[in-house]
Amino acid sequence: MSKAIRIHEHGGPDVLVYEDAPVEQPKAGEALVRHTAIGLNYLDTYYRTGLYPAPNGLPLVPGNEAAGVVEALGDGVNGLQVGDRVAYVGPLGAYAEQRVIPADRLVKLPETISDEQGAAMMLQGMTVEYLLRRTFAVKAGDTVLYHAAAGGVGLIFGQWAKHLGATVIGTAGSPEKVELAKAHGYDHVIDYTKEDFVARVQEITGGKKCDAVYDSVGKDTYEGSLDCLKPRGLFVTFGQSSGPIPPFNLGVLSQKGSLFLTRPTLFAYIAKRDELEASAAALFDVVANGIVKININQRYRLEDAAQAHRDLEARKTTGTTILLP
Questions:
Q1: In what residue span(s) does the Enoyl reductase (ER) domain sit (predicted)?
Q2: How much is the pTM?
Q3: List of the chain residues with pLDDT < 70
């Protein structure tokens, strides 16, 4: 018997229940992984509240990423051995001491990457990889805007985008978060509680605006985000921490300069095994070479997942947060 966090009904953090969970043996193509660290992401709150439907209904074990050790393998698994250190972004079920997972979703952790780093960075780091390298291929001379710059994805984004040679503008919600973002690659950080970020972007860019805007906030920022784009710029909406973007007339994109809009997800960008391996390899490379530093600023015990969710939703966290079994 193992322990896991389960959701039996949708709601606030109190619906996260720490309880016994049976441990299955892996079937063909699967692996049993004993977790050593588990990643916490805002995405987890969407499944908790029911904003995103649980693929297999309730009860649900949340969580999409973790690191650990392979304990057993089902038939037909190649490239892995019992005892291998691995990490993943995969099917829901990470908030557990142990879990069975499709083996093709696992990647081996190199010696240069710790288990805690692996758990903390897979979803967030590979999100940054596809945003910067594939959704919009950022290059030297580009100007980009990223909302929530002091969050886990934001701190990775700032470092990586700066390495690519972009001018990186961020928004954050307090003086402390502004300074944190500035220390992680951002050339300019706007405190949105004190300044109009649209006006500041105009000022910073001399009226030229941005080549791309990356927005995971949603309802509160999308209109301003569109106003920060130069003609034929790209609006990347990849989250909705303030609520979903309401329906709007797509003619607005024409009026604001033939703008492009996309709503990407990580899982669409790593659906194929070769894409997963390439994305993970790119992430491991920038971390191992010191280009991107992974900041684990909060650690909670797995049984304290409810408090971790409260702090995350109250914007009390910065950088990356992990749960420890």
A1: 11-323
A2: 0.91
A3: none
